[in-house]
Amino acid sequence: MQKDLPELRLLTTPTAQLQVSGATLVDVARVAGVSPITVSRALNQPHLVRPNTLAKVQAAVQETGYAKNMQPGALASSRSKLVALVLPTISNQIFADMVQGTSDTLTEAGYQLLLGFSGYEEWREEILVETILSRRPDGIILTGTLHTDSTRRRLQQAGTPVVETWDMTASPIDTVIGFSHEEVGHATATHLLQRGRKRFAILTAGDPRAARRNQGLQVALAKQGISVMATHTAAVPGTLPAGREGAARLLDAHPDLDAIVCSSDNLAHGALIEAGSRGLDVPGKLAVMGFGDLNFSSHTVPPLSTVRVDGARIGAAAAQAILERLDGAAKAQPARSVNTGFELIQRGSS
Amino acid sequence: MQKDLPELRLLTTPTAQLQVSGATLVDVARVAGVSPITVSRALNQPHLVRPNTLAKVQAAVQETGYAKNMQPGALASSRSKLVALVLPTISNQIFADMVQGTSDTLTEAGYQLLLGFSGYEEWREEILVETILSRRPDGIILTGTLHTDSTRRRLQQAGTPVVETWDMTASPIDTVIGFSHEEVGHATATHLLQRGRKRFAILTAGDPRAARRNQGLQVALAKQGISVMATHTAAVPGTLPAGREGAARLLDAHPDLDAIVCSSDNLAHGALIEAGSRGLDVPGKLAVMGFGDLNFSSHTVPPLSTVRVDGARIGAAAAQAILERLDGAAKAQPARSVNTGFELIQRGSS
DNA sequence: CTGTTAGCGCTTTCAA
DNA sequence: TTGAAAGCGCTAACAG
């Protein structure tokens, strides 16, 4: 029994791609003998449709081979079900963890993730934000709180929910979720000083937040009259071999170091391997501190100590914040700050 | 001189979000004194517009504060400028590298990346593909060549360019870009056998492609009458501590092992650290092989040997393949297979 | 619970 | 080089 099925239309677009256009809502409606809006409801808010009608629609969907198309709906409703995430790079495990946390949360809520990279450059971020905005996402998650004025302005006037992550600030664009990097540096200093460390070196990647942690470390050390003996800066992202090489340089120049503070676990593992190859006792003679110690993608091993931050949690919380802003929009919620904190993981008896 | 600027319209959507709707093409056209389509051309194909007109449009854009909106254009032209990437997880460095390579290539071409995770589960992939398709991306990049029949069918009928990656197959959905995992296993066996290794263990994560590499390894070893002494399987993704623990178990059970073949560099680094803590000479007494050795996010250190695969290159090539299919669509290009190969990195004199 | 009407904001097509 | 008309496929708002 062949009802009036929509014929397969062959469309040749000007860019000359030959494509098969499938059935539309209208086609389904015709076959089901209802109106298009009823099909829309049956598909998206089935509880608003009588079971009987629902069944007819479902049958028609089968018969026509209808495939959902969110694009027109997004246009008509101004809800794209898309959330954008702007990262400096994915080549750092903490960001990989964050992506997973963000994506999982969004997927569960029926949203999808648009991903873009700024390469730690503000001007790139500015262009990227503009491009992203042109897609009208339902929310934007940014890394850090350092943006050009123009980016901030653009984001504010767009009226899209924005979450800044991995940091704290007194003047957020909208919502911030993260922790204080100065505090991390301070806590690291306290931790190592309490254990009698006196001869410090910093092994860091050229990342603005790492710089702030180092700053916090140095300020806290200075209060005890201690200054860092040497700093080695590696390119972003800090890799394991770069960590090994950096540690080698530091130890060559200062064989009596008793603490190397690294800006990432990758660098720290490199340092650990270098120390091992020199027969240095870690953490007996030399303490090595990392940063990260993630859930999904990487974990440190003893005898490394590290600062644990939960990238997946930050990502999930950021996504959650967007979602809440979206459905609670009427309540005009105020901007929020969420401090996710960090945790110092001590290993060995150093 | 206040021309008839569009007033800022306050829209209250049913979901009750208060948002400011900006100027549209029509607004710009009115201010510029031209037709909407001319504004569209001035913005997207400026070479088709007289410089004089162009200037008027640009001035009007300034004056109205017009912000580009791709959504209606995507609907009207069936070109979303969106490419989707489906990964099992991001918690594996090789995929992180791939994301970066894909994103960089797409961004340069004015496209953006939609990212989704299947968690190594076919049914998740199937749902994800359906959701992705409902957004009408211009292309889809998948991981591996193992998909449900229904996924394959759906993808084919959608008429969207598809690239399968990280593998080779005789029956691609469309295009494949990757290498043979059996060959990797074979090459690894040959390499180690040539260096006199006889007592093998496998340290692997439960990943289908890793399984195929192990398979290739074992087949090649069997030809020399050698069988693997033990296999330790860790959860995906293989982490450094898991590698260390797995190596410990293997070495406890078989102290005389002379080769541990790992399914990732993460696991291998863990094994290396364990070997170091036992005072085992690597690679003198024990060879440790990794897999990955990436460009962006991770590199192995000596004395680890490894199989190098270029995730960023695979990602970039996949994006490129989509783009080519898009603009050369008229030529109805045939499906292609690209073997990106791999490279065995030998370190130490083992 | 279901339908009617009127767009969402841009692009395509064809004509001038 | 520019414009007019006609959608793209779906949803909002309101009426029945």
For this structure, the CATH topology of the largest domain in chain A is Rossmann fold
> What is the typical, i.e. mean, pLDDT of chain A?
88
The poorly predicted ranges of chain A are 1-19
Rg of chain A, rounded, reads 27 Å
Structural class of chain A: alpha/beta
Describe the global form of chain A.
elongated
Give me the strand/helix succession of chain A: EEHHHHEHEHEHEEHEHEHEHEEHEE
Query: Largest interface, counted with CB-CB under 8 A?
Result: A-B, 71 and 73 residues
Largest sheet of chain A, in brief, is: 6 strands, parallel
Number of domains of chain A: 3
Helical content of chain A, roughly?
40-55%
- The portion of residues forming beta strands of chain A comes to 15-25%
Name given to the CATH architecture of the largest domain in chain A:
3-Layer(aba) Sandwich
Number of helices of chain A: 12
Oligomer: homodimer
Label this structure with key terms.
homodimer, 350 residues, alpha/beta, Rossmann fold, 3 domains, six-stranded parallel β-sheet, six-stranded mixed β-sheet, 12 helices, 14 strands, 43% helix, disordered N terminus, DNA-binding, DNA-binding (chains A, B), Substrate-binding domain-containing protein (chains A, B), transcription (chains A, B)
Describe the structure.
- Two copies of one chain form a homodimer.
- By secondary structure, chain A is α/β, with parallel strands linked by helices.
- Chain A folds into three domains: 1-18 and 78-179 and 311-339, Response regulator (Rossmann fold, 3-Layer(aba) Sandwich), CATH 3.40.50; 20-59, no CATH class; 181-308, Rossmann fold (3-Layer(aba) Sandwich), CATH 3.40.50.2300.
- Chain A has twelve helices and 14 strands.
- The first copy, chain A, has helices at 25-32, 36-44, 51-64, 70-77, 93-108, 122-133, 149-158, 181-194, 208-222, 240-253, 265-277, 311-327; strands spanning 9-12, 18-21, 82-87, 112-117, 139-143, 162-165, 175-178, 200-205, 230-234, 259-262, 287-292, 305-308, 337-339, 343-345.
- Chain A has a six-stranded parallel β-sheet with strand order 4-3-5-6-7-13, with helices on both faces.
- In chain A, helix 7 links the parallel strand 5 (139-143) and strand 6.
- The interface between A and B is large, with 71 and 73 residues.
- Chain A binds a DNA duplex (16 and 16 nucleotides) through helix 2 and helix 4.
